[in-house]
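Raw record, unedited: Alpha/beta hydrolase fold-3
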Amino acid sequence: MESTTNPEQEVTHEFRFFRVYKDGRVEKFIKTHKIPPSHDPTTDVLSKDAVVSTDPSISVRLFIPNKVLSSDQKLPLLFYIHGGGFSFESAFAPSYHNFMNTVVSRANLVGVSVEYGLFPERPIPACYDDSWAALQWVAAHVDGRGPEEWLNMYADFQRVFVAGDSAGGNISHTLATRVGKIGLPAGIKVVGVTMFHPYFGGTEDDHMWLFMCPTNTGLNDPRMKPDPADLAQLGCERLLIFVAELDHLRPVGIDYHEELKKSGWGGKVELVENAGEDHCFHLRSPHKHMEDLEVVLKFPTFFEVYKNGHVQRLSGTDTVPPSDDPKTGVRSKDVVICPETGLSARLFLPKTTTATQKFPLLVYYHGGAFCIQSAASPDFQTYHTALAAEANVVIVSIDYRLAPENPLPICYNDSWEAFQWVSSHLNGGLGGKGDAWLNDHADFSRVYLAGCSAGANIAHYVTLKAGVEGLQGMKIKGLALVHPYFYGDTEHEKDFVGYLYPSSPSLGDDLRLNPRIDPNLSKLGCERVLVCIAEKDVLRNGGLTYYEILKKNGWSGELKLFETQGEGHVFHVNKETCENERALELLKVVASFLE
């Protein structure tokens, strides 16, 4: 008996967002509505559309705060990629149009939302290639001679951000990979990537993606399941991933975060989870959820705190991976000290001539007001490489946890724990299971501590604690404090340090912050101290007072003061001044101290 089924009605495939009939027709379950650009009276944001390419058809919707038109201000640029399962939605859809209006208004930036090709009219990889073409089109405005005047006039191309949700989050990853591998024109800097509830392989939707991409390479296609080598080359400094508790894509977002952390990528990654919410909830009521991103507290140059508790650092977030320096022969690597807390360190080893050559050991604590910077920052990577080469020392740079997410005194506790870990290598105390560089090359009869700014404060704390409590036979030869921070009881400090250290009943009487009043100061656990100050440093007087008090309080060691004329705070690690004559002089002074 012949079948009476109409071939036009016979379904061959059915997925979350569409079904496919035997005759090749595709029926989408969700319709896409579009609205024109406009001036939004609620947010006072202007929008307009621009054509990127006619063949293939690619366009963008641009957004700009109305108030910027009467100024010459340059604003950060957000390049946004909409979601929709690679098959529906649009940059011109009401939800995305309204979302971009809200973001552009609240964040005061230029927005570019890309309209890329969708399945089935343009199968994957059109979405990736179109978005990349649109980003290149945006980048072509960097010299101020592009076709779109808003970008020429108002976009700061040193502050470019890429973001996307769901499928757009997935596309954002591929763009970041291409930026890292291929690059963008000189003058373009992709600072960060944000993924809202991104799609990656590992869900029931994988076969839908494979169907939409006829040229796929299977379940391990790197666009669906990111390759670790690609993750390690992402072309941005920071990456923020949002997941939602009730979202079916939550697990793959978390997996991406974990894989990125393990990849060796040198940037900063953060995961934020919204409890009680589901997939792309922020698009349904952007004004409501953007209220959570309202800045409620701001400490200029350091960080902002949003209504939802998120901390956004304003500087000191750049990181670089460890590397071998061909010029000096100094090698570096990262080690984990405590997996539970994430306490780690970056080690630097000078050029060696034998497998067991011994060098003095320097334990270093980076600066950054207890809340920014890291052992992996470019500034400290450069400085430690130069210092290791100049002084011929092994350096262990401690990456303690930062406030305000980890309030003081956590940084002190981390730093003491890290120093104990270092000292446990004395005489093979870890039975050969510790770090090979420390076991083979560290001379534990020549141990030094050092730090700059807040790190100098921490270095003092660890040295004093070692003097009071002891370290199982290990002695500290010297302590070098460069532009040290000690509490000065100013109004700004009361607010700022008080926020970082909420458990301290009295900041001025806290011996960690103000060791100048510590009755145990004479027990400082080292033989020599070098205090370095700078003429134009706002912390100069605090360092000088520390020197004078230590000289008078009965401590029996050798004390030296060195002042740099004409320079300001931590100029020696600032990228603009780290190679000037005075910075090199200070480097040699510290290196000479580490004899």
